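User: Here's a structure from my thesis project, written as structure tokens. My advisor, Dr. K., wants to see whether a designed sequence matches the one we expressed. Can you design one independently, without my sequence as a hint?
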């Protein structure tokens, strides 16, 4: 395989290594593949372990209260006092403090004609603050929090999505898509290598290649159509159908992700010395008579959830919604996935009257959620008895440091590093839902939803100021 074909892209190079490690002959026990699963969801909270703690420590070192200084030696400007500080002596309820701090900020004209808010104590589940908190709003990409919770509940954090190659008939091989949009060119190369070795061991040197996309059903195009924000939804694709080497963000997409993946696979087989007849076509393996030749697995669902939330990845979101459908006995379509996700959320005991799930990504304006629903969902993910949901928290972008919050929250902002939140943006819609640690160590879950906004940048800054008020300094 040419070196260029093995280029690993950005954040996901670790996944490529996972795929190379999990490519294997069918004769290898499935237990070996499961042994690669990591214990990524054992942390007791959103700041425990690994890179996330490092991000917090870095922020604390650079912007510690009363100690942060600019290069010119001046102390960083002070921010509003913590809204929950000294509650024992203040003689006021937490709700009163929050109302005093948040009410004026939510009246900012940048937040448009309509807004809702909810703040919940993530430890106790106590509702501390609400404005129109039970009303239905367009959540935009904050609906990905719901997709994440549903997928983790349905398949578990250690589940991996397999792409397989099956022998079909005397001279056929079928590339079967399992629903992994993160399959890389390197992973596909490893799959071709394992397949070539399996064919050689069977004495087969010439094959016909087909591809199987029967795992999904229904329309392949999102309602927004072919778009640089999302590829056609297929169980078989390479690098989310991107036509460049990017690993997240808008990019030109192929209109035929499965066919393109199969053509690349056939070319790789030829490079491995296998003669391939003609061009790949859509087909299926011969049922029980088909033999598995090779497979490659995705990173664990816990890692997929984190990547989806950090980068607001629409392709992973739709894939996870369909994994939820498959685990729930529903058709892996937009409609079936929406039904399955809704049922899983209801089973978590969340308030559902204002919730309408239409897709997994939040690109559809018909999605609905309440601020209360989103805040309580985050609180559920923090419960000690629900460790499987912890990636919902650990995947949240860190204010000023990662993902869709990397370029928000300037260095002197009170919420920098303390706020972790999923963003949501559509024309006229801006949302933010996440967690914040108060100066006294209290973990709050919040959701702010705004409709009728006219300046996305101004609306985002208004939401960031509101979340920062929860953090203080």
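Assistant: Designed independently from the structure alone:
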């Amino acid at each position: 395989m040419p070196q260029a074909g093995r280029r690993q892209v950005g954040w996901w190079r670790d996944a490529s290594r996972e795929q190379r490690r999990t490519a294997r002959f069918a004769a290898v026990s499935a237990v070996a593949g499961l042994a690669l699963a990591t214990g990524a969801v054992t942390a007791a909270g959103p700041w425990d372990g690994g890179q996330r703690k490092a991000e917090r420590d870095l922020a604390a070192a650079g912007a510690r209260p009363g100690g942060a200084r600019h290069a010119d030696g001046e102390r960083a400007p002070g921010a509003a006092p913590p809204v929950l500080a000294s509650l024992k002596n203040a003689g006021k309820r937490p709700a009163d403090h929050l109302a005093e701090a948040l009410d004026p900020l939510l009246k900012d004209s940048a937040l448009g004609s309509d807004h809702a808010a909810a703040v919940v104590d993530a430890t106790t589940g106590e509702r501390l603050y609400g404005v129109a908190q039970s009303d239905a709003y367009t959540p935009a990409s904050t609906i990905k929090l719901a997709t994440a919770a549903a997928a983790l509940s349905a398949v578990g954090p250690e589940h991996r999505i397999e792409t397989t190659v099956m022998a079909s008939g005397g001279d056929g091989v079928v590339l079967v898509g399992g629903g992994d949009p993160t399959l890389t060119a390197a992973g596909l190369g490893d799959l071709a290598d394992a397949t070539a070795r399996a064919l050689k061991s069977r004495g087969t040197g010439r094959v016909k290649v087909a591809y199987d996309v029967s795992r999904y059903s229904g329309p392949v195009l999102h309602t927004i159509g072919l778009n640089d924000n999302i590829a056609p939804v297929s169980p078989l694709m390479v690098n989310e159908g991107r036509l460049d080497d990017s690993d997240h963000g808008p990019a030109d997409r192929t209109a035929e992700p499965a066919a393109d993946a199969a053509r690349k696979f056939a070319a790789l087989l030829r490079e491995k010395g296998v003669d391939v007849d003609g061009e790949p076509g859509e087909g299926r393996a011969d049922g029980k008579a088909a033999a598995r030749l090779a497979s490659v697995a995705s990173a664990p669902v816990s890692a997929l959830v984190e990547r989806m939330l950090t980068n607001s990845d629409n392709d992973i979101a739709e894939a996870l919604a369909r994994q939820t459908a498959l685990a729930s006995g529903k058709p892996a379509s937009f409609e079936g996935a929406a039904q399955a996700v809704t049922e899983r959320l209801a089973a978590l005991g969340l308030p559902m009257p204002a919730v309408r799930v239409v897709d997994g990504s939040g690109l559809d304006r018909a999605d609905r959620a309440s601020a209360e629903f989103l805040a309580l969902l985050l609180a559920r993910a923090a419960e000690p008895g629900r460790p499987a949901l912890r990636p919902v928290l650990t995947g949240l972008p860190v204010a000023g440091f990662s993902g869709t919050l990397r370029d928000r929250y300037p260095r002197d902002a009170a919420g920098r590093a303390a706020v972790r939140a999923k963003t949501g943006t559509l024309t006229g819609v801006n949302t933010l839902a996440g967690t914040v640690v108060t100066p006294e160590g209290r973990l709050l879950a919040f959701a702010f939803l705004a409709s009728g906004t006219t300046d996305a940048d101004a609306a985002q800054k208004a939401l960031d100021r509101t979340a920062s008020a929860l953090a203080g300094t």
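When you compare it with your expressed construct, this may help: The chain has two domains: 3-36+161-298, 50-155+323-471.
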